[in-house]
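User: Hey, quick favor. My workstation is busy. Could you predict this chain's structure for me?
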Amino acid sequence: MKGACGRGVLANEKPPIFGMIQRGGAVVVRMLENVQQATIRPLIERFIAPGTRVHTDEYHIYHRLTEWGFDHHTVCHS
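Assistant: No problem, here it is.
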């Protein structure tokens, strides 16, 4: 399946999808209006306990996870 590069946006019918997967456990997937810290923070705080180790890509919206009380680690692209 081929598509345009970049982050999805709801306005052009390619909504961003945000997913969280617990090791050996639950999967949470949400369609978002936009990809911003103000949008993802309530989801993260609702589904992930403070202090939990969280692995993400290097996208800038995750830079505040440590400030928000999570043990944040990035998966480097090479």
